[in-house]
Amino acid sequence: MTDFFRDIPTIEYRGPGADTEFAYRHYDPDETVMGKRLEDHLRFAVAYWHSFAWEGGDPFGGQTFDRPWFGGTMEDAKLKADAAFELFALLGQPFFCFHDADVRPEGDSFAESRRNLEEITDYFGTKMEETGTRLLWGTANMFSHRRFMSGAATNPDPEVFAWSAASVKACMDATQKLGGANYVLWGGREGYETLLNTDMGRERQQAGRFLTMVVDYAKKIGFDGTILIEPKPQEPTKHQYDYDVATIYGFLKDFGLENEVKLNIEQGHAILAGHSFEHELALARELGILGSIDMNRNDYQSGWDTDQFPNNVPEVALAYYEVLRAGGFGTGGTNFDAKLRRQSLDPEDLVLAHVGAMDICARGLKAAAAMLEDGGLEAARAERYAGWDRPENAAMLTSDLSTIAARVESDALNPEPRSGKQERLENWVSRFV
Fold it and tell me: Which Pfam families would you find in this protein's record (predicted)?
């Protein structure tokens, strides 16, 4: 045990009238919504990197946090794990997520780093047995170290490709050993700054072959979780091969992997791609590749990924509306890929940031479920497209231009615009949030 979270009580549901900050007002894990416990709908996870590895820096300043586990030894890594699992227990979080670099010190060689990861994996296993916390997903950090400045799978240096492949194998082995529900590939450097020094065709082929090897290895070791890719636009690379849902789906189709891989979609990344979060979720749902989500928000006045905890119920409700329409998460969940502001120094800040975010998500999901059960939005959509249900109109989708043109003239068609009723539907959503 550590004393990092000393005097902070275990967080419990006490309802909207709770007289303390240290309580859930809306998140009751045992509340039943649409026939399922709220905990099983939301499947919350703590992000190990932001909560325990991030030092509080930003593009203009360095470390502001002073944590007792900041250091480069295995003892530091184990102390960090002790504190992390104490937080999981305080919050009642069912899951956590990690990168390999978050949890083990970097060795002087790949072999030493791998041994460090294996040692901390065994330590995690003991902690998971003690607390009941599970692993939502693991992933390899292939973007922070300078060796990845030109990418990982897409790197022009074959030795970096090889290092990346070995890193993913080691991290997949750790994820498998810990019973992880998913494995994520986060391609933060898989892109390019300029075509002047880039062979785009070669790099796409490398990325496709790399992902195929990941899928093959998952089958080889009997990994029964889901392989996920996380869309990542603009930051830090100007042109990303994994820019958004549509881009990745085209990539998956190109390499015959559309039935093997799903997506982990982040709110902040959707915004950087110029989309809404619900757009990305809806498209992934339509394409059958919605897997899991990273829940956070960006500062809309900043042009970079600020990774703030969610606080907007209407936005969150529209996101979970798409998740519920997809039938829920399956193996995925809600990972808080969010970090404290660099001036929020206290352990209490870390606890309360998660408490508030979990309440926001609970409110959002319950509102989304109420909207679905009411059916008003789906009824409005059905009415708008009702004309396509008539046989003569449905037949156009299997017809040809000449036949359709003849019909327009013979029936003297002269369509008039009809209202999309956007403001009325926005008002309808507001009733629930």
Answer: AP_endonuc_2 (PF01261)
Judge whether 305 is annotated as a binding position: yes
Q: Would 23 be classed as within a structural domain?
A: no
The verdict on 85 and 200 lying in the same domain is yes
Catalytic pick among 26, 41, 50, 99 = 99
Cα 319 to chain centroid distance, Å, stands at 12
Q: Are residues 108 and 206 in the same domain?
A: yes
Residue 280 and residue 347 in one domain: yes
In the set 28, 102, 242, 244, the catalytic residue is: 102
Q: Is 269 annotated as a binding residue?
A: yes
| Alpha-carbon torsion, ordered 385, 387, 393, 396, to 10 deg | -20
Does pTM surpass 0.85? Answer: yes
Taking the C-alpha atoms of residue 141 and residue 143, their distance in angstroms, rounded to an integer, is 6
Tell which residue, 29, 23, 53, 56, has the closest CA to residue 41: 29
**Bridge pairing between strands 32-33 and 36-37:** antiparallel
Does 307 belong to an annotated binding site?
A: yes
Examine residue 8 and state whether it is found in any structural domain, yes or no.
no
Q: Is 216 a catalytic residue?
A: no
Catalytic residue check, 102: yes
Per-residue pLDDT of the chain (433 residues; tens, 9 = 90+): 899 999 999 999 999 999 999 999 999 999 999 999 999 999 999 999 999 999 999 889 999 999 999 999 999 999 999 999 999 999 999 999 999 999 999 999 999 999 999 999 999 999 999 999 999 999 999 999 999 999 999 999 999 999 999 999 999 999 999 999 999 998 889 999 999 999 999 999 999 999 999 999 999 999 999 999 999 998 788 899 999 999 999 999 999 999 999 999 999 999 999 999 999 999 999 999 999 999 999 988 877 789 999 999 999 999 999 999 999 999 999 999 999 999 999 999 999 999 999 999 999 999 999 999 999 999 999 999 999 999 999 999 999 999 999 999 999 999 999 999 999 999 999 999 9
The distance from CA 173 to its chain's CA centroid, rounded to whole angstroms, is 21
Domain that residue 393 falls in: 387-430
Domain with residue 226: its CATH number is 3.20.20.150
Residue 313 belongs to some domain of the structure: yes
Angle between helices 422-430 and 376-384 (to 10 degrees): 170
